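Cross-posting from the modeling subforum.

Setting up a comparison between two proteins and wanted a second pair of eyes on the formatting. Protein 1 (sequence, then structure tokens):
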Amino acid sequence: MSHIETSYLDFGRLEALSRGDSFLHRLDPRTKVLTTVFFVLAVISFDAYTVSALLPFLLYPAVLSGWGGLPVGYLLKRVSLVMPFALMVGLFNPLLDRDPGATLGPLELSGGWLSFASILLRVFLASSAAFILIALTGMPDIALALERMKVPRIFVVQILFVYRYIFVLTEEAVRMMRAYTLRSVHGRRPGLGIYAQIVGHLLLRTLDRARRIYLAMVSRGFDGEVHTLRTFHLGLRDVIFLVGWVSVFSLFRYQNIPAWIERMAG
């Protein structure tokens, strides 16, 4: 099985996880979307050199992964796909900002290293919260929740189509790589020139298939509105979940818990 095919099946597991039966899966999607939004806003609201105050926010993805029965190893693999972008963003910070920032035992860290660590931690927290939201809810329910929250329909449909387009693109890539492997001599990997041709044909085939899928949806009555068999109902547990986590995020935002523990221990 090719690497592309393995990655496709692995990525599809995220949708399979959303069909779980924990109490987190049964929460109203609007509750989980709002909680995730508050979490991300709280994480990105710190200044560029904050590191220790962000550490308590790791509690949120850890608790939701445990309560939802989500495989931690799989989620970490998904998050690792995003981390190289964070590395590229903050890679030169230690070289550009050499002013003293903090001391760690005998080591003196510059502001550049602090901002670099802060970027990595923020991206890790935000991406893990996003993947957990998808794993606990599923993209169709997230899209419907956004529509119920009065997000413009065209924006919701674009999010849903882009997400589905990833699967269409990957399916076509799997087919093309399988066809090339079956026709190549001794299963030899394609060279750089062949890869360029494959990418060009992949784009054309994917666009054509996406067009056919859209026409099939329109012929079946698609009018831009997201439909689902599930009915939404905000209950007491949804309110408790949202208010409880927002209160925790507020505490973490305005109280540096690690510094407070250090003062109490000292």
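Protein 2 (same layout):
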Amino acid sequence: MTKSGSALSAPELHSILELRTAVFVVEQDCPYQEVDGFDLLSGTWHRWWTDREMAAGTDGATAGTDIDIVAYLRVLCEPDRFRIGRVVTRADRRGWGLSAALVADTVRWLHHKRDATRDSVVLSAQSHLVEFYREHGFSVTGSEFIEDGIPHVPMARPLNVGSDPSTRSR
């Protein structure tokens, strides 16, 4: 499912915030302001999968009101690029490759949304996930930094012509 922040229903937003808080605040024992003011903006995109969508092999168009989110990420439209963040998989679904598939699908989606001002995507990867993001075409663009007590590394990848990830060999 893909929805802009302004199109989210209250139950969808609740499910998103519940998953993100369970993992990023509770599980990672990292008290920080998870609700940051970006979620409901029209230029914010939320992408997620539910068990129902995965079983049906759909993009969520027939998912109805099923909002039991198992994998999620957020895309912010910045003036000169896209930013992926809040990549998360529910604890009982880890190890299934869901985040990898969602990131790959999102990079393909962004490749088709790129324009003259937004032709790259950036993210702040938790340092232990650098190789995971390298597999999706991201490169380290700066030094490690601490965010909310967790080491992170800035990463980016182009979305220009010829970088369509659906044509990349792994």
